[in-house]
Design brief:
Layout lengths: L24 H11 L6 E5 L2 E5 L6 E5 L2 E6 L2 E5 L3 H7 L5 E5 L2 E4 L3 E5 L6 E5 L4 E4 L1 H11 L2
Antiparallel strand pairs: 1-2, 3-4, 3-7, 4-5, 6-7, 8-9, 9-10
């Protein structure tokens, strides 16, 4: 793939032009990445107070008993959004869904243990151990380059 940048003072905002002989999966991935909006804020409540949670501080987000929780080093917060709505707001380069009920911050992972048959054990920075469901194992292996 060739990348070319031209400086033209007549343009008021950047313009991206893709020249190709066919639309491939790589082209679609590039277009999707270029079209992504900036991540949005996530608010959580704890002790009857709402706080804006920084994405870098999030360790995991999970669903339990019909509620959504976000875990940081400072504690656990209740979120009012659904898990899929939170996933849309999170930076896709740092967060990954590991099951239907959990999303983890890849930058808060201590290690992945692949010794378990059919699943992956994940140790997080706060000492919590969680598991990648079988449905998401291939996706995680692809992200990790395994």
């Amino acid at each position: 793939m060739q990348v070319e940048i031209k400086i033209d003072r007549s343009y008021t905002e950047p313009k991206i032009l893709i020249l190709t002989n066919s639309v491939t999966e790589d082209i679609n991935r590039i277009v999707k990445r270029l079209s992504e909006e900036a991540p949005q804020e996530i608010c959580g409540s704890r002790d009857n107070k709402y706080e804006v949670l920084q994405q870098a501080d999030l360790i995991r987000i999970y669903a339990n008993a019909g509620k959504i929780f976000a875990v940081t080093a400072e504690g656990e917060y209740t979120l009012r959004l659904r898990l899929y709505e939170i996933e849309e707001r999170l930076n896709p380069h740092h967060f990954v869904r590991i099951s239907n009920s959990e999303i983890i911050n890849l930058r808060q992972v201590k290690n992945f243990d692949l010794n378990f048959t059919g699943t992956i054990c994940v140790k997080l920075s706060n000492g919590i151990t969680t598991y990648v469901s079988r449905r998401y194992v291939s996706k995680i292996k692809k992200i990790l380059g395994i």
